[in-house]
Every structure is written in structure tokens, then in C-alpha cells.
């Protein structure tokens, strides 16, 4: 997805949020914000991928703050909150006539655990308050039947994860994917380095994601979404061999929509107007959309 003008205030809002996470020193916060604005002023190009520019901006902010993981406390709390909701998710799946679909809806609800932007949670605990409402709301755009058909015939699947907290529900979804298609080999890909509230290998190990997938790998670097030029060889091979790619979250959509990789299924909340317009979908809705 190309950067859009409305991405700029959204990006700066998140920068302000993370500078306040990283330091209480107002002068240091201002310095980081100036660096973000400088990067935007120098690099903004409507032909640029939104995730690529966001990566440059956040990297400059992290360097200025001298903090390689300002979201760390929020990430830890996110996993704790999501884990507290696991019994509820398991009850819903157990009672469902389609456990896989139910697990996907819950995994998409987990995509709300994103911070510093409109349309997301302000704090991890809010998920406890909105979970039932979002579950009752269901899917605002539903291509699950197409996705299920793809899963039926797949033997190798690559899952690109998104946020902490959300990854707890992704683990349950992976278990249900394996139950639905016992032939399925799943490679889960987390971030190579801490970036925003996204899950890293450390976070994946903390929830024992490896217990339900065949391989856990990383994107190989600091990147919002995916920087394909730095993907490890193992992930490139997995993508080449994949019958199906599942991407969680908006940043992965921003990255993958710039590539020819298909089939790709996006499971996310359309939390911003730019994403909604790009995907031709309503804003603030839970989505399963397949590109073939």
C-alpha cells in the first residue's frame, strides 16, 4: 500500500505516543518528534510503501530515545490480558459448529491490541471490555469460505503474526488450523527486532507458540510490517513453498500488498481510513479477505 496524506498525522500520533512511553523528559520527547518530522519531510513520497516510510520514522525515534523497545511494558501486559481471556475463547470454540472460523474471529479481535493510533485500544485492559461486543459483531467482511477451501487443499502455510496479546489468540488459531487439516505444515513468522507492539521471538517463546506450529522464524530485522530485502533465507524458502499465506494486521497488509505473493489471506481490523480505502472495505470492522 502506498503512503497516503492521512497516514502522516496517524504516524505522528503514534510517534508522540511512543516518545511518552520512552521518556518523561519533555526535551527528549521533543527531540525525538523533531527527528520524526525531519524524516517525514525528507522521505515522504506518494510512491513509497507506507510501512517502509513508517519503519524509517520509528527507527529514527527509537535511536533518538536510545530505547530499543519502548512498548515492552505494554507488550507484556497485552499477553497477560489476552491469556486471561483464553478460557472465554476456548468456551466459544468448544461451543462452535465451526471451531476454525471462531478461532479466526477471536484472533482478529486480538488485532485491537495496537496502541497509539485511532481505532485501537488505548490500553490492553480495554480488550476485556470490548471483546464480547466485537465477537457479537462478527465479521464485517467475510471470505472465510474461500479461505477454508484454500486451507483444505494446502500442505504448507506461512503465518505472519502481528501484535503481542493478539499472538496468544493466533496460537489457538494455529492449533485449530492443524486440527482442521492434519497435513498442514505451519511456519509462523514474528518480528526480527522489537518494533511497536509487535511480537518477537522472545514473545513467541513466552507463550510457547512453537508447541502448535512446525517452525517459528523471524522477519530478520527492524521493520514495520515486512522488509522483504532482509528476510532470512528460511522465510524466503517458506514463502516460495507456501500454498497459502495468512497475514495478521494492517502493517503486514501494507507490506504484502506491494508484492506479487498470492494467495494471501488478511485477517485484521480496518482501524484506519487509509487501509479501509485500499482494501475497499468499511472502516472499524473485522475482516477476512483473500487475494488470489
Describe the structure.
This protein has 292 residues and is an alpha/beta fold. It folds into two domains: 7-65, Helicase, Ruva Protein, domain 3; 72-291, Uncharacterised protein PF01937, DUF89, domain 3 (Rossmann fold, 3-Layer(aba) Sandwich). Helix content is 52%, strand content 12%. It has helices at residues 7-22, 26-43, 50-65, 72-95, 99-109, 126-137, 144-153, 166-180, 201-206, 233-241, 250-256, 273-279; strands at residues 141-142, 156-160, 185-190, 215-218, 244-248, 264-269, 286-291. It has a seven-stranded mixed sheet, sandwiched between helices. Strand 3 (185-190), helix 9 and strand 4 (215-218) form a beta-alpha-beta unit. Helix 1 packs antiparallel against helix 2 (26-43) and helix 5 runs antiparallel to helix 8. The chain starts with 6 loop residues before the first helix and ends with a strand.
Task: For this entry, give a set of tags.
292 residues, alpha/beta, Helicase, Ruva Protein, domain 3, Rossmann fold, seven-stranded mixed beta sheet
For this structure, the CATH topology of the largest domain is: Rossmann fold
Structural class from helices and strands? Answer: alpha/beta
Physical arrangement of strands within the biggest beta sheet: 1-7-6-5-2-3-4
| Largest sheet: number of strands, sense, barrel closure | 7 strands, mixed
Number of strands: 7
What's the layout of helices and strands?
Layout: H1 7-22, H2 26-43, H3 50-65, H4 72-95, H5 99-109, H6 126-137, E1 141-142, H7 144-153, E2 156-160, H8 166-180, E3 185-190, H9 201-206, E4 215-218, H10 233-241, E5 244-248, H11 250-256, E6 264-269, H12 273-279, E7 286-291
Parallel strand pairs: 1-7, 2-3, 2-5, 3-4, 5-6
Antiparallel strand pairs: 6-7
Helix pairs in contact: 1-2, 1-3, 2-3, 4-5, 4-8, 5-8
